[in-house]
Design brief:
alpha/beta; Rossmann fold; Nucleotidyltransferase, domain 5; 2 domains; 21 strands
Length: 570
């Protein structure tokens, strides 16, 4: 029988719980609990199993609403067996007592034992049960036949992969809950499983739904604003100013945060971010060597916006590429007459659990991101998609990442089968064409530890100087996760770096082969017209940049046929 969430809400409103002053009060869901119930409504309407992973601030009431939902299931259906998994024995007892108290408050028959709560129907026949265990005892429960699961503080389970091992035993049904909730515990070690599972859900790369709860959604996170009159250290003062500018928080909420910073976090912002985060990215404490500074991330975030189109690109009989219906391409603009575009690409195998094939298009004339693509496409599919995307954007300069065979295979398909006309030529780490016996320079960008550093170096300079504006949320998200090791090499330790790699590879082509003309950032309009007859204020890069471009184009003496392809539609 399908769960009726309107009746579930009615059941929850009949319960009573202990508040923070230990008083027995009616259970009225707070804002984050109500948002959680709304998400369950939405998943039920979409016929999706209610599997949710929750990254949260401390003491916001997520455990309470999850226990209430398990109670509703055990009371409303027969033969239910709910399993609650806790980090520590004390937490397990608290959760069991919470379930007992809720059940007692509505006067239904039950029998509670050391680690179980047995539910009875109207004829006092044992119908359902809730069992509470600690993470250390999960090994014995992997073969159990439970119908719903709550893993509390899952990021702290010492037994690596403990909650992941229980997931396959759950039935796949709209009526059976699976809730994984925790405050974050870093990206590595014990907390790695929770982090990777949450990240996969956030990327919609799993059946789980990602749900984040910031501290300010708790109505009890308030204090006397007079606290703010006292001074604080410079770093925290700067962060408080940024929070006020970005989030709608009151003086009372900011006063509470100041107290939490001084007391629970012991004056450590890293601890405050972990225990009481304001965003999910903040909650997962990064390493001491993030690739981009906080200021650079903020600059990138300012340009993030939804794409104008999510379209497919179709090849017409006359060879033209046109948009046609909804598809995998995210487009922030359509190609503009006289503008030069740059396309970076990162290939993958296209397998179900592997990396994505990704592409990013930059409008070199404006510095704005024009398009993005991220799907599981094999090399043959990816070559066709890249050919259509590049030709659509005025024969964009194609820059595939070629450090693996997949990138080389895609490049060969584009050259031989599709006769793609315009390519990036490898200049080397010192921005000069390498002398060699071949008269034809290498095509594509080869990534090594040194060239990865060069990619980031040029991109961050362009970002600081306002020359580049990313719009894709996924691109900026991967920027945030990039870490630098040994002073040179950057990497995304968990998750994917495909979109970020494609974007930086595409941008290095714009840096080394600059467009003839640019639109300075201060003179851009919010919506540039697509009409080729509409005049725009365009300034020349100047004789120095043009001389550099001509010098780069001339070096290496490529064949005349290849040079014509490079110069096509410039």
């Amino acid at each position: 029988m399908k769960l009726d969430y309107s009746r579930v809400r009615e059941f929850i409103n009949r319960l009573k719980i202990r508040d923070k002053q230990k008083r027995l009060v009616p259970f009225h869901p707070n804002p984050c609990q109500d948002r959680f119930l709304t998400l369950l409504d939405k998943m039920a309407a979409e016929h999706r199993p209610p599997r949710i992973i929750i990254d949260k601030s401390r003491r916001v009431g997520i455990s309470t609403i999850c226990i209430a939902l398990l109670n509703a299931q055990c009371c409303g259906a027969q033969a239910m067996e709910a399993r609650v998994l806790a980090h520590l024995g004390d937490t397990a007892r608290i959760l069991l007592d919470m379930a007992k108290g809720m059940h007692q408050s509505i006067g239904l028959p039950a029998d509670w034992r050391r680690s179980k709560l047995l539910y009875f129907d109207a004829d006092e026949v044992n119908s359902s049960k809730m069992t509470v265990q600690t993470a250390k005892t999960t090994g014995g429960g992997r073969g159990g036949g439970f119908t719903s699961l709550l893993c509390s503080e899952a990021a702290y389970y010492e037994k690596e992969g403990s909650f992941l091992a229980l997931l396959p035993t759950l039935p796949r049904d709209d009526n059976f809950f699976c809730f994984i909730e925790s405050t974050a515990n870093g990206r590595e070690g014990v907390g790695a499983d929770f982090y990777e599972t949450f990240l996969a859900a956030h990327r919609r790369d799993s059946e789980f739904e990602a749900f984040f709860v910031p501290w300010y959604e708790d109505p009890l996170c308030v204090a006397d604003p007079a606290i703010l009159k006292k001074g604080t250290d410079e770093e925290n003062a700067r962060e408080e100013k940024e929070i006020r500018a970005q989030y709608k928080v009151t003086d009372m909420q900011m006063a509470w945060r100041r107290l939490a910073y001084m007391n629970e976090a012991e004056g450590l912002l890293t601890k405050l971010h972990q225990e009481f985060p304001i965003s999910w990215e903040e909650s997962f404490i990064a390493s001491d060597n993030p690739t981009f500074t906080k200021e650079e991330i903020e600059l990138a975030e300012k340009g993030v916006k939804p794409p104008k189109f999510r379209a497919n690109l179709m090849r017409q009989p006359n060879g033209q590429i046109e948009m046609s219906g909804r598809g995998p391409f995210k487009l922030w603009e359509t190609p503009k007459h006289g503008h030069e575009y740059y396309l970076g690409a990162d290939a993958a195998r296209g397998e179900l659990h592997g990396d994505f094939s990704a592409a990013v298009v930059w409008n070199g004339t404006t510095g704005e991101q024009a398009a993005a693509f991220q799907e599981r496409a094999n090399v043959d599919e990816f070559a066709d998609l890249l050919d259509k995307l590049g030709r659509y954007f005025n024969n964009a300069m194609m820059t595939p990442e070629t450090s693996c065979n997949l990138g080389n295979t895609v490049m060969q398909r584009l050259m031989k089968d599709y006769k793609y006309p315009r390519w990036y030529r490898w200049l080397g780490r010192d921005d000069r064409l390498r002398p060699g016996t071949s008269s034809r320079p290498s095509i594509g960008f080869e990534t090594t530890s040194r060239t990865r550093h060069m990619l980031v170096h040029h991109f961050r300079i362009s970002l600081r100087e306002g020359q580049v504006t990313p719009h894709d949320e996924e691109f900026v998200s991967q920027m945030k996760l990039a870490e630098t090791s040994f002073g040179i090499r950057w990497d995304v330790r968990f998750g994917h770096d495909d979109v970020f790699m494609a974007g930086t590879v595409g941008w290095i082509a714009r840096v080394q082969f600059p467009p003839r003309k640019v639109i300075p950032q201060g003179t851009r309009t919010m919506e540039l017209p697509d009409d080729p007859n509409t005049p725009e204020k365009i300034d020349d890069l100047g004789p120095i940049a043009e001389a550099h471009r001509q010098k780069v184009m001339a070096k290496g003496a490529p064949s005349s046929q290849w040079r014509e392809g490079m110069e096509a539609n410039r």
